[in-house]
């Protein structure tokens, strides 16, 4: 895969502007760069005032930081999106079916498709969830599927986020900022709306109310608190949905229901959109030292007194070792070939694969099975000999902790750099909502962009930025 | 609404009110220092007492100087009532209760904090002081303006107002108590130079010179000033005014929730007393005793509200 010419989503491989970008390129060419620069500063100021920040873990001095925003949109044609969304829908359906199966009869293991140790030795597998039937049989209500692109028609799934995918507030605020800063662009281009997401989320969560709910479901967002890196997003979503934003100490179990302390006494909650990890959810069932959760919530959940979204234990479906089985998982539950491709993945737990990986470290990306945020990984082609030697030791000590993938030549989208347009690598996280009424995918998603030239790391904790993502209406 | 949200809103507005009160005190102190040859240092001490931070100041500083006091009141991290700490606390509370605020109110309080953080990043020079103090007041006014202009008149709004007026009543009572000796009719020789200065301090510190002149002309009697700031229901920083507002907002909550709670009785009792008393009664009771008693009841009401509306577990 290396060696191919880099695919730029605006200029292709041959420098000719691609159709989806035609209107934009026309506008951009007629703009005065100094006005654009002033506008870009204005956009950044808008983010500062709105307070869209994230906190960096382990860096107390950093406090809250802004994620850099780039004003050049990433544009996807209607036809491309239609194809992508079919693949995403299929994958999300399979993820939910897989989770149901894992916590019930484990047919996929019985059929010999998934080795039993993939479940049994998986820290994210929660034995407490065995036999539990979540409302509407939905486990992962809110999903983020990370995609990368290498050519005009070549997309790969890089990662499934079935626990608590974050970033949707950036998708929404990026669009608001673009509408505010460059209104004229939206009269020249017909861009599909994203602004309905909070209402869709509320509707989708309400549709999963537990059997104990009578009347209109009460929805709340559970946050670990204002020091959490995604706190802005938690408060943003609660605000936009018109739901309460609660912390563990606002809640307790009253008469078999989880209830929140209001100015008029305790009031039951029907659906809780939790942004707290499984481990911290219930000190009585999981981590005993957790101050963030609600003692007894899991018993209420099991008895149908509350819906927890996403369900506890969904993490078993999205770690990087399970990822490597996704093509088989999709086929097993949908009876179809996966419409979206996986990046070829070597499971270092398997001796042959490990041998290959050890021989080819300088060409591969090696990741921790449970890692996230771009930490703890080796990017072979850019690593020093010393890095590779150090990583080799870690890999040999615990091969089961790692998977390896070839380095893809990720597509680029231009950013507005000091000297004008400059190509930078991007990925895409579309957001998916699942309810008994169906699967809803917001057109677009969050585009993350590596701001450093040549860098493949798009994570915001490591200096990545974001872009507004447009899906054009059909012609 | 969540008890935590009610508490967050209440404290957010107490801190915003405190910012303004501190800015006024600094302004008053600075004016005295610039216009009076003597006695300015003593005035800074009484300003520290009025702000309720004298002990904290003395723990950090050997002597009382204008520069050190100004820095302590505006910027010190060791002073939980400094403008910078209050602005940060107001914003932290606003973040906690973000879902209870309109976007305008949130942005106003966030900008207030960002502006003050930059402005107060280093020591404020005498030359910059007027600009800094004006900015503090304007930023705080923006928050109040967006509260009035955009927030629904519901329980959230009631808690915002109650927090504002509990804080304000405390500040006015404290100011009067620190100066009670110059307001005693028996001691003050009417028209003496010292008294004129002291009265000016009192009126300036509550932005009341203009309003006072409108009501009382140029006659500055001690009891007229005391009456104006304690009992005059038209004066927005008087104790009577604050309690009229607290009573109104507690009444709205009573009607809205359909429950009468201990805090309602508590507030009614204070309101009633302020309506019944004349300034002569106050002086007969003893101004100092009256103010001490008032501050105690005011603080107790704050705690009762906290309990009645479940701010904390």
TrEMBL record, chain A:
Cross-referenced SUPFAM superfamilies: Glutathione synthetase ATP-binding domain-like
A Pfam family per the record: CP_ATPgrasp_2
Domain of life: Bacteria
Domain Circularly permuted ATP-grasp type: 73-450
Signal peptide: none
PANTHER family: BLR5612 PROTEIN (PTHR34595), SLL1039 PROTEIN (PTHR34595:SF7)
Name of the protein described by the UniProt record: Circularly permuted ATP-grasp type 2 domain-containing protein
Taxonomic lineage of the native organism: Bacteria, Pseudomonadati, Pseudomonadota, Alphaproteobacteria, Rhodobacterales
From TrEMBL, chain B:
Stored InterPro entries: ATP-dep_Glu-Cys_Ligase-2, DUF403
Organism superkingdom: Bacteria
Name of one Pfam family that matches: Alpha-E
Domain DUF403 span(s) in chain numbering: 1-309
Protein name per UniProt: DUF403 domain-containing protein
Source organism phylogeny: Bacteria, Pseudomonadati, Pseudomonadota, Alphaproteobacteria, Rhodobacterales
């Amino acid at each position: 895969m290396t060696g191919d010419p880099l695919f730029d989503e605006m200029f292709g491989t041959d420098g000719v502007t691609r159709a989806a970008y035609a209107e934009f390129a026309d506008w951009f060419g007629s703009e005065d760069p100094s006005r654009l620069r002033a506008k870009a500063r204005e956009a950044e100021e808008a983010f500062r005032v709105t307070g869209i920040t994230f906190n960096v873990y382990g860096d107390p001095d950093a406090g809250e930081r802004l994620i850099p925003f780039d004003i050049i949109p990433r544009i996807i044609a209607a036809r491309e999106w239609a194809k992508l969304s079919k693949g995403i829908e299929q994958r999300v359906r399979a993820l939910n079916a897989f989770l149901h199966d894992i916590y019930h009869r484990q047919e996929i293991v019985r059929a010999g498709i998934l080795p039993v140790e993939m479940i049994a030795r998986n820290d994210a597998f929660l034995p407490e969830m065995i036999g539990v039937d979540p409302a509407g049989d939905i486990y992962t209500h809110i999903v983020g599927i990370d995609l990368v692109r290498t050519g005009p028609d070549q997309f790969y799934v890089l990662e499934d986020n079935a626990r608590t995918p974050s970033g949707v507030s950036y998708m929404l605020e990026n669009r608001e900022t673009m509408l505010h800063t460059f209104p004229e662009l939206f009269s020249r281009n017909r861009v599909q709306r994203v602004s309905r997401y909070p209402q869709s989320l509320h509707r989708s969560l309400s549709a999963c109310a537990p059997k104990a709910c009578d009347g209109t479901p009460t929805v709340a967002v559970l946050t670990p608190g204002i020091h959490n890196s995604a706190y802005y997003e938690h408060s943003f979503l609660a605000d936009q949905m018109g739901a309460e934003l609660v912390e563990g100490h606002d809640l307790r179990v009253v008469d078999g229901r989880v209830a929140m302390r209001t100015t008029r006494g305790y009031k039951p909650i029907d659906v809780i959109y939790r942004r707290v990890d499984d481990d911290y959810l219930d000190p009585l069932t999981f981590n005993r030292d957790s101050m963030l959760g609600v003692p007894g919530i899991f018993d209420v959940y099991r008895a149908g007194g509350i819906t927890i979204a996403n369900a506890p234990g969904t993490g078993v479906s999205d770690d990087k070792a399970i990822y490597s089985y996704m093509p088989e998982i999709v086929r097993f539950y949908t009876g179809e070939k996966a419409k979206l491709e996986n990046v070829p993945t070597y499971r270092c737990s398997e001796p042959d694969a490990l041998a290959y990986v050890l021989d080819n470290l300088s060409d591969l990306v090696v990741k921790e099975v449970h890692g996230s945020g771009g930490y703890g990984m080796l990017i072979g082609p850019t690593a020093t000999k010393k890095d590779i030697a150090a990583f080799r030791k870690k890999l040999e000590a615990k091969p089961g902790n790692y998977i390896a993938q070839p380095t893809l030549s990720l597509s680029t989208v231009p950013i507005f750099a000091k000297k004008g347009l400059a190509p930078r690598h991007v990925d895409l996280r579309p957001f998916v909502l699942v309810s008994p009424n169906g699967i809803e995918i917001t057109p677009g998603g969050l585009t993350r962009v590596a701001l450093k030239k040549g860098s493949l790391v798009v994570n915001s904790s490591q200096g990545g930025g974001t872009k507004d993502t447009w899906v054009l209406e059909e012609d | 609404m969540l008890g935590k949200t009610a508490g967050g809103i209440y404290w957010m507005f107490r801190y915003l009110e405190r910012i303004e009160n501190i800015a006024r005190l600094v302004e008053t102190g600075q004016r005295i220092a610039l216009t009076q040859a003597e006695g300015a240092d003593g005035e800074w001490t009484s300003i520290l007492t009025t702000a309720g931070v004298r002990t904290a100041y003395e723990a950090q500083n050997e002597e009382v100087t204008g520069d050190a006091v100004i820095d302590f009141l505006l910027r010190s991290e060791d002073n939980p009532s400094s403008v910078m700490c209050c602005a940060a606390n107001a914003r932290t509370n606003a973040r906690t209760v973000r879902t209870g605020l309109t976007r305008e109110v949130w942005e106003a309080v966030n900008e207030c904090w960002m502006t003050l953080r930059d402005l107060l990043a280093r020591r404020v020079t005498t030359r910059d002081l007027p600009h800094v103090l004006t900015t503090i007041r304007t930023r705080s006014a923006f928050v109040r303006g967006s509260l009035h202009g955009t927030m629904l008149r519901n329980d959230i709004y009631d808690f915002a107002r109650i927090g504002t007026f509990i804080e304000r009543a405390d500040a006015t009572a404290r100011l009067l108590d620190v100066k009670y000796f110059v307001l005693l009719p028996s001691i003050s020789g009417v028209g003496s130079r010292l008294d004129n200065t002291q009265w000016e301090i009192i009126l300036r510190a509550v932005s009341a010179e203009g309003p006072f002149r409108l009501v009382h002309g140029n006659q500055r009697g001690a009891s007229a000033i005391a009456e104006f700031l304690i009992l005059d229901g038209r004066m927005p920083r008087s104790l009577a005014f604050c309690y009229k507002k607290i009573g109104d907002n507690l009444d709205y909550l009573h009607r809205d929730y359909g429950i009468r709670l201990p805090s309602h009785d508590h507030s009614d009792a204070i309101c009633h007393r302020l309506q019944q008393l004349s300034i002569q009664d106050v002086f007969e009771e003893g101004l100092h005793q009256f103010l001490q008693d008032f501050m105690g009841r005011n603080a107790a009401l704050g705690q009762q509200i906290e309990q009645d509306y479940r701010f904390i577990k």
